[in-house]
Amino acid sequence: MELVLAIGIGALAGSGVWLILRPRTFQVIVGLSLLSYAVNLFIVAMGRLRTGAPVLDAPAIAEVSRYADPLPHALVLTAIVISFATTALFLVVLLASRGLAGTDHVDGQEPGS
Amino acid sequence: MNGMADLMIVPVVLPLLAGAGMLLLNGERHRNIMAAVNVAATLALVCIAIVLLRMSDASQTGITQVYRLGNWPAPFGIVFVLDRLSALMLLLTSILALAAVVFSLARWHRAGAHFHPLFQFLLMGLNGAFLTGDLFNLFVFFELLLAASYGLLLHGSGLARVKAGLHYVVVNLAASLLFLIGVSLIYGVAGTLNMADLAARIPNIAAENRGLLEAGAGILAMAFLLKAGMWPLCFWLPMAYAAATPPVASIFAIMTKVGVYVMLRLSLLLFGHGAGASAGFGSNWLLLGGLSTIVFGSLGTLASQDTARLGGFSVLVSSGTVLAAIGMEQVGVTGGALYYLVSSTLGIGAFFLLVELIERGREPGADMIAVSRETYGDDEDEGEEDVGTAIVATMGLLGLAFVGCALVIAGLPPLSGFIAKFALLTAALHPSEMRPGGADSAGGWALLVVLILSGFSTLIAMMRAGIRSFWASPDRTVPRVRVIEMAPVMFLLIICAAQTVQAGPVMRFMQATAQSLHAPDDYIRDVLETSGQNTRKAGGL
Fold first, then answer.
1. DSSP B216-235
2. DSSP class per residue in B45-106
3. Where are the domains of chain A?
4. Residue numbers in A near B150 (CB within 8 A)
5. CA distance B507 to B515
6. Does the predicted model carry a pTM greater than 0.90?
7. Which of B502-506's residues contact partners 24+ apart within 8 Å by CB, and which partners?
8. Residue A38 has pLDDT above 90, yes or no
9. What is the ipTM score, two decimals?
10. B159 touches chain A (CB under 8 A)
């Protein structure tokens, strides 16, 4: 479980970083989205992983330590909302840049032109 | 006392209400109402900040005001904490905001929609970031102020701004992701995000987890240092600041200081003397990074062709100086750095406003985009009052303001920049108490050399810019400057002058602030203990 999640986060983050360093704005926005998925998974993983745990277990209901830590989920929810909003905002800037500069290069001009 | 305790939530709630209220109005038609609301709200923020500052300074023992949202006790609920440092930052923000918003009324607020609501939301994010006592809440306020700043940077549109804005947004989004990784690593190790609780728990972290915690803190620091513009994370900054409209660039001068503020607070709270094995974590890196930022910024000031970029590099020098001072980890140095922070922020804010007035005279409308040129024409039709119809008065006033800004930023007598650097260097060379690790004043000497050289290069750059714009351009027309544009610049410079005249009391306040920052036990106790005052207040909602 740990290995699968770690590889998943690593693959997402790696592709995200690679895409962010690409010269086209669309690649950058996809890269940012992938990175934020990786970070969201990472936050959930910080609440500790456990497989096969019952949601409610009759003898253990009163025992608080048996429950999952709810805080990472609250954090990840906030992080999702915020990164969604800022990505949408970035999309607008991207389109404005494309419209004004006539190119989708991140520097607003083709290299060498 | 309850009423006074509630006052500290107002710097967050008031801009929220004002900004949200303005969104209900139609942007184009009700611009005057929005402007009035914006100015009134900002003015109210200045008054509240002054009251809060007096309140925090009046408490002898350095007792911090704690406001619990929802009245949940500290490690579980979110708290707002008011101490001397946050009150000082609130006041600095609101003063700079007042100058920027009054300046924008002359023309810039007409360059695009929603200037006023975005401005208030930016203030809300800034004030919240200064007041919050919780790491994740800090993230939320950071995102708030960043979202508003994206809009403000793009205010006025135009290719240059969109290009700079694109880089700015990407860099800050990536930094926010680093912020989240750092926060969640710290939560995973320490199990809390409340700053005071975190500080209390760090000495007891098991040795095998300590590396993970420090990695988390380091990643978190990356996000703040990027905002503060520490070299090598600062390449986005001069371009973004030079592209922004002048009032926006002026208020952005405080945005780098948010990063500096968080570094100051967290490095002294979490990794101060009481942090056990982690004490002094990263302070050498801060010192080195700060010094290299000063060097990079100074080279940049010498290399910059236009005056706005010069301002952008001065921002780097300013935050580099404070970061290096934090890395020294001495009470006296921190006090001097706080004084320097206030004076340099005000000076740079005034400089960004002034640049536009000076550049306006050189090539009328050459570097303005179509929208603002249109408003420029409107201004002339309105035929509103000009300051000093005589050529000499306008140019003289602009020149005087320019000299004032240059003195403050370069740190020459008689203005406050000199006192700030003097206080900083005196304390750095005469360490009253050594930090626990490497105890030598080599850092102090390095800081001395770098600061003096950077002051010198700033002076050269400023002089060159001044000669170019005031003496060496025969074909210049005298800029049409209105009172409402000149007054904010003068207001900021007068505050710098007042800071010079009242250097004694101001410095006493800064030293008291530094004292309580270096001894965070009071802070931790006040936040975590159930102090009777606030508990009685039934239901914080």
1. HHHHHHHHHHHHHT-TTS-T
2. HHHHHHHHHHHHHH-TT-PPEEEEGGG--TTTS-EEEE-HHHHHHHHHHHHHHHHHHHHHHH
3. 2-49+67-101
4. 86, 89, 93
5. 12
6. no
7. B503/B416, B503/B419, B506/B339
8. yes
9. 0.90
10. yes
- Considering CB atoms only, which of B162, B174, B180 is closest to A20? B174
Provide CB contacts within 8 A for B182, sequence distance 6+.
Answer: B216, B217, B218, B219, B220, B221, B222, B223
Q: Do A71 and B187 touch (CB under 8 A)?
A: yes
Whether A91 and chain B come into contact, CB under 8 Å, resolves to no
Q: Is B390 in CB contact (< 8 Å) with chain A?
A: no
d(CA B480, CA B478): 6
**Interchain pair B147, A96: CB under 8 A:** no
Fold of A2-49+67-101: Helix Hairpins (1.10.287)
Cα(B251)–Cα(B201) distance, integer angstroms: 36
Q: How many CB pairs under 8 A join A and B?
A: 88
Q: Which band of pLDDT confidence, cut at 50, 70 and 90, is reported for residue B475? A: low
Residue A46: its chain B contacts at CB < 8 A? 184-185, 187-188
Element of type H or E holding B34:
helix B31-58
What are the pLDDT digits (tens) for A72-101?
888 899 889 988 888 888 888 888 888 888
* pLDDT at position A54: 65
- Say what the pLDDT of residue B178 is: 92
Nearest chain A residue to B162 by CA distance is: A97
The residue extents of the domains of chain B are 2-530
**Closest CA of chain A from B403, distance in Å:** 36
Q: Of A75, A86, A100, which has the smallest distance from its Cβ to B173's Cβ?
A: A86
Token code pair at residue A33: 């989205």
**The predicted structure's pLDDT at residue B431:** 66
Q: Which residue is closest to B159 within chain A, CA to CA?
A: A100
Contact B450, B315 (CB under 8 A): no
CB contact under 8 A, A82 and B143: yes
* Spatial distance between the Cα atoms of B13 and B269, rounded to a whole number of angstroms: 27
Q: Give the CA distances from residue B268 to residues A82, B81, B180, B256, B498, in Å, rounded to whole numbers and listed in that order.
A: 29, 16, 21, 19, 29
A68 touches chain B (CB under 8 A): no
| B188 lies within 8 A of chain A by CB | yes
Distance, CA of B87 to CA of B97 (rounded, Å): 15
What pLDDT digit, counting tens, does each position of B222-267 carry? 989 998 888 888 888 888 888 888 888 888 889 889 999 999 888 8
Partner A contacted by B209 (CB < 8 A): no
